[in-house]
What we know:
Strand content: under 5%
Radius of gyration: 35 Å
Helix content: over 70%
Largest sheet: none
Number of strands: 0
Structural class: mainly alpha
Amino acid sequence: MELSSILMIVGIIVIILSLFLKDKSVQVEKDVEDLSINIYQETNALKRRIKLLEEELLVEPNFQVKHPEVDKSDPFTSFQKVAAQVKTGQSSYTQSSVKSEKNTKPINGILVSQVLALNNQGLSIDEISKLSTLSHAQIQSILANGGKQ
């Protein structure tokens, strides 16, 4: 037998064997696809958790409005009392009392860094106040102190 006929017979045998052997690349592709789907799902779950944490940190949880005591016996006189309190500024839920309560609480570090970053971007105090939950006075004190409390 010649060398060329031996090589031809060996080639045919190898081709026939390759048809019967299991292709492992299909299994590897499936494993990679499953892994990428798992990573995508975990990434989305982490993003949702981070978003929830950011929302919780930016909201003041103990903020409550005090309601005036109302006399249930005569609604008209109780309305007059509340109206008189609002006129004279003695109401327990006037804007100034809400601001003074906010100013006494320590400001969260994330809010401080947010205010400083927004100021570095060139935003005005009004714009920063709209984007954050802080008052003008709080933002001015943060900027004056350079973020130190």
